[in-house]
Amino acid sequence: MTGLSSPVRSCARAGRTLFFDCDGPRVALTVLSPRILRIRLAPDGLFAPRPSWAVPVPDEDFPETPFEVEETAESFIIQIAPSAPQEASGVAVRIQRNPCRLALVDPTGQVFCADTEEAGMQWQDATDGAGPGGPEWRVACAKRIAPGEHFLGTGQRTGLLNKRGRRLVNWTTDAGTGQGPGTDPLYIAIPVVLGLRPGLAYGVFFNNTWSSAFDLGCSHPAEWRMEAEGGELDYYVCYGPTPREVTEGLGKVLGTMPLPPRWSLGYHQSRWSYAPEAQVRSVAAGFRSRNIPCDVIHLDIGYMDGYRVFTWDPVAFPDPPALLADLRQDGFRVVTIIDPGVKSDPNYPVYREGLERDVFIRRANGEVFHGYVWPDDAVFSDYTRPEVRQWWGDLQRTLVAQGVRGIWNDMNEPPVFHQPFSQKVRKRTWGTIDRDARQGPAGEETTHAEVHNLFGQGMARASYEGLRRHLGDERPFVLTRSGFAGVQRWSACWMGDNNSWWEHLEMSLPQLMNMGLSGVPFVGVDIGGFAGNADEELFARWMQLGAFYPFCRGHTTHFSADHEPWAFGPRVEAICRTYLQLRYRLLPYLYTLFWEASSAGRRCCVRCSMIFLPTRRPPTSTTRRCLVRWCCWLRSAVRGETIGRCICRQVIGMTGGPMRWSRGRPGCWRTRR
Q1: CA-to-CA distance for 131 and 450, rounded, in angstroms?
Q2: 3-state helix, strand, coil in the chain (%, to 5)
Q3: pLDDT band for position 668 (50/70/90)?
Q4: What one-character-per-residue DSSP string does 427-478 give?
Q5: Residue 421 CB-half CA count within 13 A
Q6: What is the distance between the alpha carbons of residues 506 and 655, in angstroms, rounded to a whole number?
Q7: What is the average pLDDT across 292-317?
C-alpha cells in the first residue's frame, strides 16, 4: 500500500472540521465533542458523501465544541476545550507536518492512538479489475502499541478478553457450531476496539462497512492496524479516560439501545423446535407446575408452513391466536423466529408481493438472486432500501394481531446453502450472497460487498420499526443473530450456535463483556449450549451463571436431548429454580442497568460482572480475573451456595492456577501461584 508520505502543505478550517492538504491527498479532522474526534483520509482529495445506510450519528447532531489550532514549524497542535470546568486541559491532537502523522495526547500528557512513523495512513488503488460498483480504494492505518496496552471490545469474538496478538476480521459469517479460540469471523461484525492501559482508555470505531480487519499486534508486535477492502479510511476516537466513559462516548456516536419491555429481562425458553401446539403447552405447563420463573417461549422454524416466513403450519398449529391467548393468560409472551430467505413459490403471497414491489436483491446481470436455505429455493430482501424495510416491517402486522410480542431474526448473516435443505445432506455447507449482487436505494446503487455486514442489521431494524408501528403502546423486542456497529438501537443479540462444552461456558463471559464494551449491552448465549448434550453438572453451572446474563435464554437443537430445567432430575431442577428466582428478585436492579444503558450507553454485562468489587489495580486482560469477579458476586448474593467454587474448578482451572477463598474479605478470591 501507499503510505501518506507527503508533508502537510496547508490547513483550512470549516466549522468544526480541519482539512489538511498533503499534495493531493487530504486529511479531515472533525471535533465532535471534548472527547470524540473523527479522522478521514481522501487519497484523491475528494471525500465521499454520507450514504443513507451510514451507522454513526451525523456530525451536525453534535453540539459545537471550541478548540484552538497552534502552528509550529514541525506540527499543528489542536487543543480541545476540557469537558468539565474543573479540568485544567482537554484532549489535544498533534499533526506532524512531514510526513503527515497523527497522535492524540490526553490531559496528563500520555500519547495514544498515534500513527506509526513508518506507515500511518495508507491506501491502494483497487479499481483495476474491480468492475462497476467495486471498491475504489483499499485503505489501512497503522498505530503504535504502547507498553502494557491491551485491546478489548472488537464485538463478537472467541477466546479470552484481551485480543492483543490477534488478527480479527469484520465480515458477518455463519461459523456454525464447534467454535474454538481461533474461530473468526463470527455472526456479528462490530469494528470497535478499546485500547486500555493504566490510567487511560480509548475506543476506536472504524466507520467502514466493507470487509475489514483489526491486526492487533499479530503481524508486528509494536503496531496495530485497521484495514478494509474498500471504502474510505474513516474512524472515530472516543477518549475515556476510563472504559465507562469510552462506552458512553461510543453511545453518542453509534446510538444507545431503547428501553426493552420488562418481560424481556426474564427467562426465555426455546428449542429447535417446539412443535406441535401440544408440546408448546406442555413446556409452558412444566414451568408453572414446578414454580420455575419463565416469561417467554420462543418458536423456532418448526412452527412455519414449509419454512415460509410469516406463516403457521396449519396442522401443528391449527389456531395460533387461541394458543397465544392462553399462553398470555398464563404469563407467557411468545417470540417467533423469522428468517430472511423468502421461499420461491408463485402461490406464496409474500413472494408474489415482493416480486411485484421489486424488493429482492438482484445479481450483477439483473436477475433476482436465488439461494438455498431452509425452504430450499429462496430470495432475499434488500434492507438498505427504506421502502423495503417498511414493507418487511409491515409483514409482521398479522403475527402481532395473532398475539406474537417479539421477533427473532436468524440466518441473517446471511448464509446460503450449497445444496437444497430438503435433500437432507449429512454435512451442511454454505456461502453467502454474491459479492457483486446489486443493492442500494436509487442514486446509491452499490454491491453486496459494501453492505453485506449491514444485512442482518437492516433486517433487525425493519423488524423493530414494524413492531413499533403495530404494537401500539407496547415496547418491541427483537433478537438478532447478525449485526453491525449500532445494532443495539434495534435489537438484542445472542452469540449464535454454541456447544454444550465447558469451554463454551468459559468463553461466554469474555464474549459478552467484549460485546458490552463494543456498545451492545443486551446480549446472551444459549444456556446449556445449543448443540450437543449437556450433563447435569454443566447445565446446572451454566444456569447458575446464565441467570445473570443480560439476555437470559435456554435453547438447544432438535438433535439434542431435552434441555428444559427439569430434564436433568430434581437436584438440577432445584438449582435452576433457585437461580432463576434470584434473577427475578434482582429485576429492579437489572432494569436500572438497562435504563442506564438506554440513557447513557453504559454496558450492562460488564457492570453486572465487574462492578461489585472495587480494585485499585487497572482491569487485567485475563478471563480468569473477570470470571473471579462474577463468581464473587454470586457467592455474596446467594449465601450457602458454592457456585464460585464449582465454576472455579471447572472453568478457571483451564486458564490459570488454583484458587481459594480469602478469609480477609468475604466473597473474594485470591490466586495461589
Answers
A1: 13
A2: 30, 25, 45
A3: very low
A4: S--EE-S-TT-EE-STT--EEHHHHGGGHHHHHHHHHHHHHHHHSTTSPP-E
A5: 16
A6: 10
A7: 98
Alpha-carbon distance of 288 to 291, in angstroms, equals 5
Annotation marks residue 410 as catalytic: yes
Nearest Cα to Cα of residue 300 among 584, 553, 561, 566: 553
Nearest to 94 by CA among 39, 16, 155: 39
Tell me the pLDDT band of 128, cut-offs 50, 70 and 90. Answer: low
562 is catalytic: no
Whether the ω angle into residue 273 lies within 30 degrees of 0, i.e. cis, is yes
409 Cβ contact partners less than 8 Å away, ≥ 6 residues apart: 337, 338, 339, 340, 456, 459, 460, 463, 478, 479, 480, 481, 482, 491
**What DSSP element (H or E) covers 298?**
strand 296-299
Long-range contacts of 261-264 (CB under 8 A, 24+ apart): 261/405, 261/474, 261/475, 261/476, 261/477, 262/587, 262/591, 263/295, 263/296, 263/333, 263/405, 263/477, 264/295, 264/296, 264/406, 264/477, 264/492, 264/551
Q: What is the mean pLDDT of the chain?
A: 89
Cα 524 versus chain centre, distance:
11
Cα–Cα dist 562/546, whole Å: 18
Residue with C-alpha cell 446509491? 444
* Under 8 Å between Cβ of 498 and 527: no
Q: Tell me what pLDDT residue 630 has.
A: 47
DSSP result, 485-545: TTGGGT-EEE--S-BS-HHHHHHHHHHHHHHHHTT--SEE-EET-SBS---HHHHHHHHHH
∠ at Cα 290 (289, 292), nearest 5°? Answer: 115
pLDDT confidence of 87, banded at 50, 70, 90?
Answer: confident
What long-range pairs does 638-643 form, CB within 8 A, spacing at least 24?
638/578, 638/579, 638/582, 641/544, 641/578, 643/541, 643/544, 643/545
Residue 650 has pLDDT above 70, yes or no: no
DSSP, collapsed to helix, strand or coil, labels residue 83 as coil
Q: Which of 532, 490, 646, 616 is nearest to 199 (CA)?
A: 616
Statement: residue 629 has pLDDT above 90: no
Cell of 498: 454454541
Across-strand partners of 436? none
Listed in sequence order, the DSSP H helices in 193-276 are 243-254
The SS3 call for residue 71 is: strand
Count of CB atoms within 10 A of residue 329's CB?
Answer: 8
Catalytic residue check, 413 = yes
Which residues neighbour 620 within 8 Å (Cβ) at sequence distance 6 or greater?
A: none
Strand partners, 334: 297
The separation between the first and the last C-alpha atoms of the chain, rounded to the nearest angstrom, is 47
User: Are the C-beta atoms of 655 and 623 separated by less than 8 Å?
Assistant: yes
- Note the pTM of the prediction, 2 decimals: 0.91
Residue in 382, 497, 564, 573 annotated catalytic: 497
Spot the catalytic one: 184, 313, 410, 506: 410
Q: Is the pLDDT of residue 655 over 50?
A: no
- Catalytic option among 413, 465, 526, 564: 413
- β-strand 101-105 against 406-409: which pairing, if any? unpaired
Q: Calculate the CA dihedral of residues 444, 450, 456, 457 and round it to 10 degrees.
A: -60
Is residue 129 scored above 70 in pLDDT?
no
